[in-house]
Amino acid sequence: MADTLKLGAPGLAIELGARDLTIDEVWRIAMGRAEARISEEALTRVRRSAQHVDNALARDGEIYGVTTGYGDSCTTNVPPELVAELPLHLTRFHGCGTGRILTPIETRAVMAVRLVALLRGWSGVSVELATLLGEMLRQDILPLIPAEGSVGASGDLTPLSYIAGALAGEREVLYRGRKMMSEAAFAEAGLKPIKLRPKEGLAVMNGTAVMTGLAVIAYVRAEGLSRLTSRMTAMASIGLLGNPKHFDPRLSQAKPHPGQGRVAARIAEDLALFAKLHAPTRLQDRYSIRCTPHVAGVLEDMLPTLKTLIETEINSSNDNPLFDPDTGDVLHGGHFYGGHIAFAMDSLKNMVANLADLMDRQFALLVDTRFNNGLPSNLSGATGVRAAINHGLKAVQIAVSAWTAEALKNTMPASVFSRSTECHNQDKVSMGTIAARDALRVLELTEQVAAAHLLACSQALRLRERSKEINKSMLGPGIAALMQHVPLIEEDAPLDKLFNELTATISRREWRLDWSDDRERAE
């Protein structure tokens, strides 16, 4: 599996609507590493779909969400003279979101995913709406979207109302580092708000874009954590003067889960130089070292399945009703239901939390003189008389335990907590957005654990070097490169700033972690 951040170059243009969009492409758009452009063929589909709405309205005189109320109010007929106001009212009464505001990275992912769905030509939006949403994404005019308020069916109505309302000029956005009304941002950018046409408010809001956009971010970060865990396990193994034979490729042949074997091969490659120059001090290392391929390998083996689920959702039409692109027939369904994303995120957060637990156990071995094979207590780098007042990573171990416990607590599946809502019209809902937010929180906590563990592993290796038990020739280039990001801690000092910086770097996947087995698969 190729490293996500190596795919493409900064400034790459990605054409939306010409073909299916990948997770990697959404990630690059979200990170500001690629520019999204709308293909001409997509605009042709959009134009035809908008005409289908007009034709159906003229032919049938009644369309759900166009001439009727929404949800349980579908039996309420809207007077013809008020039909034009209905889409804007939908955006307004759903403006009840709470909680944190989605980050710019998350917001770009959400916008890209929603735009791709609309460009498929099933949703009945106008070229003007699609073009304006594309310009907002291209010029980084980002709606301020509250994270809370969606049950994941009928889609992400409340959070997506902040995009629909922004298109109409009525919601706050972030533009050039300032918060302002979207109408003002449009004026600065040379754009104009649109008047939402019949069905357009529903088309923007009645979909799975928030949960799916967040799922993209979660997937890429989880993939990175799996790779980082492999490298740090090798570092911990060296720090403990462990047994590299646990990662013999013949073991992977005996139990041939591909992801498990891939993790073992990564660790074995990082331990190759150490294995040549060091005799193991233990016949069998403890499980948190020896069984890393079996823990991280579960995530590695499930990533392709999760990728398929997420990419299928990205490239789907998931609002209601839909308009057959060929015939214009109005089709009523439930594609706004986010069950696949809910399952993917509930599964992902479980596997990621297991990485946190794994690293927490490795950390505990490194700092404890009963298990760390001669390293100083708490990995303190202080020597001589000053050793008495320095406590090394004692408090960090407590913090790692706290972050791990919170990550494990958040693995409760959200998808089983369906609630009947909206006068029992939405009587079975996915909770996909809550699952995605949970997954991101578990990832954040696990990335904090990884930041602290990187310090512990590097500290252990530097202390071994200082005592002449190992030398730099035993460390592979990947390990040496990673150690450059953390200093040796000799005197007690606050570490919060360092951890925040490392966590942000891990979250953004700014380190390239290469192994030959992955390069071969990429080729």
Which structural class is indicated by helix and strand composition?
mainly alpha
**In the residues, how many domains can be counted?**
2
Number of strands: 9
Shape type: elongated
Q: Roughly what percent helix?
A: 40-55%
Separation of termini?
9 Å
DSSP helical segment count: 19
Kindly identify the CATH topology of the largest domain. Answer: Fumarase C, Chain A, domain 2
Oligomer: single chain
| Strand order in the largest sheet | 4-6-7
H and E string? EHEHHEHHEEHEEHHHHHHHEEHHHHHH
CATH class identity of the largest domain: Mainly Alpha
- Estimated radius of gyration: 26 Å
User: pLDDT below 50 for ≥5 consecutive residues: which ranges?
Assistant: 1-9, 519-523
CATH architecture of the largest domain: Up-down Bundle
Walk me through what this model shows.
The chain has 523 residues and is mainly alpha-helical. The chain has two domains: 4-207, Orthogonal Bundle (Fumarase C, Chain B, domain 1); 215-322 and 332-513, Fumarase C, Chain A, domain 2 (Up-down Bundle), CATH 1.20.200.10. It is built from 19 helices and nine strands. It has helices at 23-30, 40-60, 86-93, 104-118, 127-138, 157-167, 182-189, 200-205, 209-239, 249-254, 258-277, 287-290, 292-314, 339-367, 394-409, 432-466, 477-483, 496-507, 516-522, and strands spanning 12-16, 34-38, 98-101, 142-143, 146-148, 172-175, 178-181, 322-323, 330-331. Strands 4-6-7 form a three-stranded antiparallel beta sheet. Strands 1-2 form a two-stranded parallel sheet. The longest helix is centred in the C-terminal third of the chain and has 35 residues, at 432-466. The N and C termini lie close together (9 Å).
